[in-house]
């Protein structure tokens, strides 16, 4: 009976290993590095755009993708640059979505500093073999035309320099529409969350399909 028990345990272990292998082979990870907008500040968890992304992945046959939301309210590019290496080491993402810079701009940080931090994040992600999606932001015009222009130009410039995917403006169709902003005038409302996802999805989806195809071929 002792020999049979050991044999049965061995067979069970082999079966469990075989069942687990496909999941590990096809698993892919999206790491989202964002601020309060991606952290879902002021909105319910179920309606936040990152949660809607998880649902869309399931609904569109991309359920092999998991989403790690490392977004923090109040986060700056400096904080993101400091945290990213450890997050890459822990999660081994295939895609890194960088949605940072808005807080830097609202605090009037020098564009060169913001650019340096975003550059460090892009390089860290690419050096680890991940593809990068850079999410562009803009700031209100009361910061002056020169600063607002320099800030807005950071994102397409970096995207061109490092060959990243780019969402030109995350808040497009949101910031100036009735009911789409919370009372603070800074954060998108619950009603705006599907639009945030719709602004990201046309750029993100081809990346998902490309990475999935590459993983399957390898």
Automatic annotation (TrEMBL):
<dbReference type="InterPro" id="IPR051532">
    <property type="entry name" value="Ester_Hydrolysis_Enzymes"/>
</dbReference>
<feature type="signal peptide">
    <location>
        <begin position="1"/>
        <end position="25"/>
    </location>
</feature>
<dbReference type="Pfam" id="PF13472">
    <property type="entry name" value="Lipase_GDSL_2"/>
</dbReference>
<dbReference type="InterPro" id="IPR036514">
    <property type="entry name" value="SGNH_hydro_sf"/>
</dbReference>
<dbReference type="InterPro" id="IPR008265">
    <property type="entry name" value="Lipase_GDSL_AS"/>
</dbReference>
<feature type="domain" description="SGNH hydrolase-type esterase">
    <location>
        <begin position="33"/>
        <end position="191"/>
    </location>
</feature>
<dbReference type="InterPro" id="IPR013830">
    <property type="entry name" value="SGNH_hydro"/>
</dbReference>
<protein>
    <submittedName>
        <fullName>Arylesterase</fullName>
    </submittedName>
</protein>
<keyword id="KW-0732">Signal</keyword>
